[in-house]
Amino acid sequence: MGETSFMAPSMPVMNKIAELSAKITFKAALRDENPELIDLFKTNETLSIPKLIMVDEQSKEVMNSWGPRPTKAVKMVEVYKKENGELSPEFKQDLQLWYNKDKGQNILAYLMELLTLK
């Protein structure tokens, strides 16, 4: 299971939020085709994806960024890494099962909180 397919559950949630708001434009930039941009938004010195970068359309200033995982998944990964080091294929499968059961609710809650900051 590659990093791209593993973290894909966030993308449809981001896209749906944008579809429902006339104030949000959703654009995707592929990590490997935009190294200069992605390098600015590393997570713990890694090129983890997806990353949501909120940019004010008028000023072009970065308002905030998020990613690559929702809060509950971040905690799960942190605990696992602390106890076991690198993420195993079995853990990645368990995390994917968590995403499936959560149905994007944790992602949605965090993104909605992030959007209300400004």
Shape: globular
Number of helices: 6
Unreliable sequence segments: 1-7
Reported for the largest beta sheet, the result is:
2 strands, antiparallel
Give the averaged pLDDT, no decimals: 86
Task: Write the element-wise H/E pattern from the N-terminal end onward.
Answer: HHHEEHHH
Roughly how many Å apart are the termini?
36 Å
Strand percentage lies at 5-15%
As laid out across the biggest beta sheet, the strand order is: 1-2
- Amount of helix: 40-55%
Cα-atom radius of gyration: 15 Å
Structural class comes to mainly alpha
Please provide a written account of the structure.
The protein is mainly alpha-helical and about 120 residues long. Helix content is about 50%, strand content about 10%. The protein contains 6 helices and 2 strands. The protein has helices at about 5, 10-20, 35-40, 70-85, 90-100, 105-115, and strands at about 50-55, 60-65. Helix 4 (about 70-85) runs antiparallel to helix 5 (about 90-100). The longest helix is centred in the middle third of the chain and has 14 residues, at about 70-85. The model is unreliable at about 1-5 (pLDDT under 50).
Q: Which descriptors apply to this entry?
A:
single chain, 49% helix, mainly alpha, 2 strands, two-stranded antiparallel sheet, 118 residues
Please outline what is shown here.
The protein has helices at 3-6, 10-19, 35-39, 71-84, 89-102, 105-115; strands at residues 52-55, 62-66. The chain has 118 residues and is mainly α.
